[in-house]
Design goal:
Blueprint: H1 3-24, H2 28-34, H3 39-67, H4 70-87, H5 94-124, H6 138-170
Length: 171
Protein backbone atom coordinates (compact mmCIF):
# COMPACT_ATOMS: atom_id res chain seq x y z
CA UNK A 1 0.00 0.00 0.00
CA UNK A 2 1.30 3.47 -0.83
CA UNK A 3 2.64 5.30 2.26
CA UNK A 4 0.46 8.38 1.74
CA UNK A 5 -2.68 6.25 1.37
CA UNK A 6 -1.82 4.31 4.54
CA UNK A 7 -1.21 7.51 6.47
CA UNK A 8 -4.50 8.96 5.26
CA UNK A 9 -6.47 5.85 6.18
CA UNK A 10 -4.94 5.68 9.66
CA UNK A 11 -5.54 9.40 10.17
CA UNK A 12 -9.19 9.00 9.16
CA UNK A 13 -9.62 6.10 11.60
CA UNK A 14 -8.22 8.18 14.45
CA UNK A 15 -10.29 11.22 13.41
CA UNK A 16 -13.53 9.21 13.29
CA UNK A 17 -12.86 7.66 16.68
CA UNK A 18 -11.92 10.87 18.48
CA UNK A 19 -14.52 13.04 16.74
CA UNK A 20 -17.25 10.71 17.96
CA UNK A 21 -15.99 11.12 21.51
CA UNK A 22 -15.54 14.87 21.04
CA UNK A 23 -19.11 15.27 19.86
CA UNK A 24 -20.58 12.91 22.43
CA UNK A 25 -18.78 13.54 25.73
CA UNK A 26 -19.48 17.26 26.30
CA UNK A 27 -23.24 16.67 26.23
CA UNK A 28 -23.31 13.22 27.81
CA UNK A 29 -23.48 14.32 31.49
CA UNK A 30 -26.21 16.85 30.66
CA UNK A 31 -28.25 14.19 28.86
CA UNK A 32 -27.75 11.73 31.73
CA UNK A 33 -28.99 14.35 34.20
CA UNK A 34 -32.06 14.91 32.01
CA UNK A 35 -32.64 11.15 32.12
CA UNK A 36 -32.74 11.32 35.94
CA UNK A 37 -29.20 10.23 36.76
CA UNK A 38 -27.70 11.59 39.97
CA UNK A 39 -24.13 12.92 40.05
CA UNK A 40 -22.77 9.64 41.47
CA UNK A 41 -24.55 7.62 38.79
CA UNK A 42 -23.25 9.92 36.06
CA UNK A 43 -19.71 9.48 37.38
CA UNK A 44 -20.18 5.71 37.32
CA UNK A 45 -21.43 5.76 33.72
CA UNK A 46 -18.56 8.06 32.64
CA UNK A 47 -16.06 5.79 34.41
CA UNK A 48 -17.06 2.68 32.49
CA UNK A 49 -15.10 3.56 29.37
CA UNK A 50 -11.70 4.22 31.02
CA UNK A 51 -11.86 0.99 33.00
CA UNK A 52 -12.77 -1.00 29.93
CA UNK A 53 -9.88 0.69 28.11
CA UNK A 54 -7.50 -0.81 30.63
CA UNK A 55 -9.07 -4.28 30.36
CA UNK A 56 -10.34 -4.70 26.78
CA UNK A 57 -7.72 -2.75 24.84
CA UNK A 58 -4.77 -5.02 25.61
CA UNK A 59 -6.88 -8.17 25.27
CA UNK A 60 -8.11 -7.30 21.79
CA UNK A 61 -4.64 -6.08 20.84
CA UNK A 62 -3.33 -9.52 21.72
CA UNK A 63 -6.08 -11.20 19.67
CA UNK A 64 -5.27 -8.94 16.71
CA UNK A 65 -1.58 -9.80 17.01
CA UNK A 66 -2.17 -13.54 17.22
CA UNK A 67 -4.75 -13.80 14.46
CA UNK A 68 -3.51 -11.05 12.17
CA UNK A 69 -7.15 -10.36 11.22
CA UNK A 70 -6.97 -6.66 12.07
CA UNK A 71 -9.29 -5.53 9.28
CA UNK A 72 -12.06 -7.95 10.29
CA UNK A 73 -11.60 -7.10 13.96
CA UNK A 74 -11.81 -3.37 13.21
CA UNK A 75 -15.00 -3.85 11.21
CA UNK A 76 -16.69 -5.80 14.00
CA UNK A 77 -15.54 -3.34 16.68
CA UNK A 78 -16.61 -0.32 14.61
CA UNK A 79 -20.04 -1.90 14.04
CA UNK A 80 -20.52 -2.57 17.76
CA UNK A 81 -19.24 0.89 18.68
CA UNK A 82 -21.62 2.63 16.26
CA UNK A 83 -24.52 0.37 17.27
CA UNK A 84 -24.00 1.24 20.92
CA UNK A 85 -24.10 4.97 20.20
CA UNK A 86 -27.21 4.64 18.05
CA UNK A 87 -29.08 2.37 20.49
CA UNK A 88 -28.62 4.90 23.29
CA UNK A 89 -31.19 7.04 21.49
CA UNK A 90 -33.84 4.43 22.36
CA UNK A 91 -32.62 3.49 25.83
CA UNK A 92 -35.24 4.18 28.49
CA UNK A 93 -34.01 2.53 31.65
CA UNK A 94 -30.74 3.27 33.47
CA UNK A 95 -29.63 -0.36 33.17
CA UNK A 96 -29.98 -0.10 29.38
CA UNK A 97 -27.76 2.99 29.30
CA UNK A 98 -25.17 1.28 31.50
CA UNK A 99 -25.27 -1.85 29.32
CA UNK A 100 -24.82 0.23 26.17
CA UNK A 101 -21.90 2.10 27.75
CA UNK A 102 -20.32 -1.28 28.46
CA UNK A 103 -20.83 -2.19 24.79
CA UNK A 104 -19.37 1.15 23.66
CA UNK A 105 -16.42 0.83 26.01
CA UNK A 106 -15.79 -2.84 25.25
CA UNK A 107 -15.73 -2.10 21.51
CA UNK A 108 -14.34 1.44 21.43
CA UNK A 109 -11.28 0.86 23.61
CA UNK A 110 -10.10 -2.16 21.62
CA UNK A 111 -10.82 -0.31 18.38
CA UNK A 112 -8.38 2.38 19.47
CA UNK A 113 -5.86 -0.27 20.55
CA UNK A 114 -6.00 -2.08 17.19
CA UNK A 115 -5.66 1.20 15.26
CA UNK A 116 -2.70 2.06 17.52
CA UNK A 117 -1.29 -1.36 16.72
CA UNK A 118 -1.64 -0.80 12.98
CA UNK A 119 -0.01 2.61 13.30
CA UNK A 120 2.92 1.24 15.26
CA UNK A 121 3.40 -1.56 12.73
CA UNK A 122 3.36 0.95 9.88
CA UNK A 123 5.87 3.17 11.67
CA UNK A 124 8.16 0.31 12.63
CA UNK A 125 8.06 -1.08 9.08
CA UNK A 126 8.70 2.45 7.77
CA UNK A 127 5.54 2.28 5.67
CA UNK A 128 4.60 5.82 6.69
CA UNK A 129 6.39 8.79 5.19
CA UNK A 130 8.76 10.42 7.64
CA UNK A 131 8.29 7.69 10.23
CA UNK A 132 10.85 7.11 12.88
CA UNK A 133 10.78 5.47 16.28
CA UNK A 134 10.28 8.75 18.16
CA UNK A 135 6.61 8.54 17.17
CA UNK A 136 6.11 5.18 18.86
CA UNK A 137 5.32 6.85 22.18
CA UNK A 138 2.51 9.01 20.77
CA UNK A 139 -0.21 6.40 21.24
CA UNK A 140 0.94 5.59 24.77
CA UNK A 141 0.89 9.26 25.76
CA UNK A 142 -2.51 9.59 24.08
CA UNK A 143 -3.90 6.70 26.15
CA UNK A 144 -2.47 8.11 29.38
CA UNK A 145 -3.93 11.56 28.71
CA UNK A 146 -7.33 10.03 27.90
CA UNK A 147 -7.52 7.99 31.11
CA UNK A 148 -6.24 10.95 33.16
CA UNK A 149 -8.85 13.25 31.62
CA UNK A 150 -11.64 10.78 32.39
CA UNK A 151 -10.39 10.31 35.97
CA UNK A 152 -10.25 14.07 36.49
CA UNK A 153 -13.82 14.36 35.25
CA UNK A 154 -15.02 11.67 37.62
CA UNK A 155 -13.23 12.93 40.73
CA UNK A 156 -13.81 16.59 39.83
CA UNK A 157 -17.54 15.97 39.95
CA UNK A 158 -17.21 14.83 43.57
CA UNK A 159 -15.07 17.82 44.52
CA UNK A 160 -17.47 20.31 42.91
CA UNK A 161 -20.49 18.66 44.54
CA UNK A 162 -18.95 18.74 48.02
CA UNK A 163 -17.71 22.32 47.53
CA UNK A 164 -21.13 23.53 46.40
CA UNK A 165 -22.90 21.91 49.34
CA UNK A 166 -20.38 23.44 51.79
CA UNK A 167 -20.84 26.89 50.26
CA UNK A 168 -24.61 26.67 50.58
CA UNK A 169 -24.36 25.72 54.24
CA UNK A 170 -22.32 28.79 55.17
CA UNK A 171 -24.43 31.37 53.37
Amino acid sequence: MAPVLLQTRLALLFAAYFCSAGLFLPYWPVWLKAQGFATDQTALVLGIFPWLTVICGPLMGRVADKTGARRAILRVLAGLFLSGYLLILWADAPWQIVALMVLIGASGAPFNAVVDNLTLIAVSDRKCIGSDHRHLMISQVNNLVGVTYQWRGITGDKVLTSTNSNDQGTA
